[in-house]
User: Fold D-2-hydroxyglutarate dehydrogenase from Pseudomonas eucalypticola.
Amino acid sequence: MTHSAFLEELHTLVDPGKVLTDADSLEAYGKDWTKQFAPAPSAIVFPKTTEQVQAIVRWANTHKVALVPSGGRTGLSAAAVATNGEVVVSFDYMNKTGAVNTVDRTVVCQPGVITKQLQNLAKDHDLYYPVDFASSGSSQIGGNIGTNAGGIKVIRYGMTRNWVAGLKVVTGKGDLLELNKDLIKNATGYDLRQLFIGAEGTLGFVVEATMRLDRAPKNLTAMVLGTPDFDSIMPVLHAFRGKLDLTAFEFFSDKALAKVMARGDVPPPFTTECPFYALLEFEATTEQVSNEALATFEHCVEQGWVIDGVMSQSEQQLANLWKLREYISETISHRTPYKNDISVTVAQVPAFLKEIDAIVSESYPDFEVVWYGHIGDGNLHLNILKPEDLDKEAFFAKCVSVNKAVFETVQKYNGSISAEHGVGLVKRDYLNYSRSEAEIQYMKALKAVFDPNGIMNPGKIFAV
Ligand code: 2HG
Ligand code: ZN
Assistant:
């Protein structure tokens, strides 16, 4: 069969008009938020039902056509990028939620449900979907599950993995599996659900997910604290954690703040300039809790760990303080940043960051380096900004040449080369810094079980 005959057959598997091959669609659906790879899919297909997904996977097996899953395309590791004539399977039309089950505190979602849609639905029932990040307005649940997305509330609520009660998946063989059936307790052998979370679509596609919800947090309150140096941030975390149940503990550098300030649409936290800032959040359930927070702030000032600070007094102020942190990534994106998303255990953060910072300062004396991240859970985002006058290829080549030193340090600390953005194409050549050769062989063997013809997102996580 010729290539166009394959595609004609694909049209018959889905609703009319749900296969696109025009240049604009190929460009738009063939990529995520990464900028290193040129998209080159051969078609985009939009299934509406599980049966259609199964039909597409079976068709792909018959003709040995590679499939790439596509959600909100907000990924930062090129796991949803199609560079090689693949067929992109978009879940845009599988975007329904079921009724909220208020007893089990769960809701059934199709993979194309937008994260914000789930958060709003939970809110309508006085419940809470706690996995949150800047791209929640366009990222999809299927993609969140594919990368085991983290974000800004991990210190309290954990990763996406913690919120998946059950999964229906179509494996690379086209079989439909119902995994865990939403149970809390289920001691019946291997939990295959967990394998599909974070698998980046390399084992199969999620066609339905039952997501857990939590009680709604009460009176969320944020503080932004300016510190005199990086070394003061961890004692601040320790001091606050000893007194309060934190829902977030983030940090950003003065350079990151300056970028957000330059937008002109976010009020500054305070006028004192500090090299680093911590943003923490807690539930101010009683006045006593707020007083405890203020007393801890004063203690931190006395210790010399904090120079200035502010506490939100309204939902508007809470939202404005969060913008200081959440707007960073989007604000610097036009500078084509080279991103690192690395993690170590919390106790090792100070020593680790110092070593990485030394490598970066030595290797990129002329580049702007922007630090921020979820420091309360050990996850640091290191963004190197492209100088305006340097072309993209030369810039990325220079950054890649520093990877070895950075990732050897990650390895030395038993850290992760990708804390929350996934491996995709961007980090796959560095997987060995976080996973042993034996572990990678077991991962490949698992892929072969679920996807014997290697049609599911080939080349992502590891090379084929
Ligand atoms: C964040 O925490 C996102 O803002 C994006 O994970 C991180 O842009 C980045 O490097
Ligand atoms: Zn992040």
In short: The pocket of (2R)-2-hydroxypentanedioic acid (ligand 1) is lined by residues 133-134, 328-329, 339, 341, 381, 383 (CB under 6 Å). Residues 220-329 form a domain with the Alpha-Beta Plaits fold (CATH 3.30.70.2190). The first strand starts at residue 19 and ends at 20. The chain is about 35% helix and 20% strand.
